[in-house]
Amino acid sequence: MTPPASASNQLDQEKRLAAAAALRWVRDGMVLGLGTGSTAAHFIALLGEAVRDGQLRVQATATSQASEAQARELGIPLLEPQRGLRFDLTIDGADELDPRLRLIKGGGGALLREKVLATASQYLLIIADSSKLVPQLGQFPLPLEVVPFALPWVLDAVAELGGSPVLRSDRHNLKEPARSDQGNFLVDCHFTHIPDPEQVAAQLQTIPGVVEHGLFLGLAQAALVTQGDQVMVVKPGMEPVSATNFAELP
Ligand SMILES: O=C[C@H](O)[C@H](O)[C@H](O)COP(=O)(O)O
Fold this sequence. Notes:
There is one protein chain. The protein is of the alpha/beta class and 250 residues long. It has two domains: 5-133 and 218-245, Rossmann fold, CATH 3.40.50; 142-214, Alpha-Beta Plaits, CATH 3.30.70.260. The protein is 28% helix and 21% strand. The chain contains six helices and 14 strands. The strands form three sheets. Strands 2-1-3-6-12-13-14 form a seven-stranded mixed beta sheet, sandwiched between helices. Strands 8-9-7-10 form a four-stranded antiparallel beta sheet. The radius of gyration is 18 Å and the shape is globular. The two termini are 33 Å apart. It comes from Hymenobacter fodinae.
C-alpha cells in the first residue's frame, strides 16, 4: 500500500538524513560501491555535490544502470567491473532489515549487482528510513532474479516453499514482465514471515534458474536508520546508538 503524501514526505526526509550521515564516513581517495533505489539516490546526489565542490575525490562503481547514469551526470568518476577491484565502502538501501542486519533487497530489481558489489566490499553500510527496520523479515515480498526459460519451474518450486510467487510487471507497461539490467525476470515471493532466512536462502539457492535472491545475510556491517530526525546506527548485537557518537565508520 502506498503511504499518504505526508507520510511519504516524512520517509523521504528520513532517507535523506540517513544518506547525509553516511557521507560523513566517506574519506578522500575511497573506492565506493553505489547502491540503487530512492535512498541510495539521495546519497549519490550528496556525494556528487561533495565531488563537485572538491571536498572529496573518490572513484565508484554503481549497482544499476540508473545509479550509474545518475553518478555519471554528477561527475563522479566511475570504474568498470575488473579483476581485483574491491570497494572500501558500499552504501546501499534496503527493503527490510532486521536487528541482526539480515536484509531483503531487490525491490528496485538491482539485487544481483548489489550482491556482487556487497561481496566485493570491505564494508556494506545500509541507509534506511524508519519503515525498513522490522523485527522479522518477510512482510516485504522477497525478490528473485530468474532466467526467463526457467520461470515456470521456478514458480512451482517457490510455491512449494510457501512463497506465493508473483512475476513482476514492467512499471511502464503492466502487460510486460519487468526485466533486470541483465535482461532476466524478477519474481516477488510473498512469504509474509521468514523466521529462518538462512534456511530459505539455502533452499532458493538450489533452484535451477534462480540467478540470485534478495536475502543479504552476513553482508552488512552497519545500518543508518533514521527515526524521526535522529539517525541511529544499527549493528548486530548492539542497541541502536545515535550516529553522532561515531567519528569513523560505525
Ligand atoms: O533493487 C533495489 C534495491 O535493493 C534498493 O536498495 C531497495 O529496493 C530499497 O530501495 P528504496 O531506497 O527506494 O526504498
